Amino acid sequence: MFTGIVTTVGSVESVEPCGERMHARIVCSMPVDEIAVGASIACSGPCLTVAECGTAAGKSWFEVDLGAETLARTTARHWRAGKRLNLERSLRAGDELGGHVVTGHIDGVAKILGVDAFDGMKRFAIEAPPHLSRFVAVKGSVSLDGTSLTVNEVKADCFSILLIPHTLAVTTWDERQAGDEVNLEVDLMARYAARLLELD
Question: Is the pTM of this model over 0.90?
């Protein structure tokens, strides 16, 4: 379980195809004693399990395996060396829930339609896949590339989000441009509410 509050930004050091899965090494500034084999780390959205970890050249690293389902549903299939990622360790008992409840189970890939920069902030216009847009509501929460964000406006399959200077500084969002794809996880409560309505 996560909050969508990014802990740090890391980068992909290497990727290796292994049949239907992919093996990746990610380097970051996270203290290695806060990374454990078997632990879960959200990597720009997807919850991935640490397979190995260590330090090299003054940086921590950890390795993960990405299965066929993760590669099919997320932008991880495009990972290359140098790709920067929003990282968040899993929530621990007693931690502050500063964002919203995020599972790290990506629902689909959304697309950035436009970026409007002003006053040090940026407004992003996002297009959700049609089957997921019904879960997006004004003032509701979404997780995009592992970042908990508030929906400002919704029009059909499109919605907008506003990122303040702090969020732009501590995540990869300042690099994002129109045409980029981002990992979308809809609000957990919205998903369950829709399922309950289907059962009525």
Answer: yes
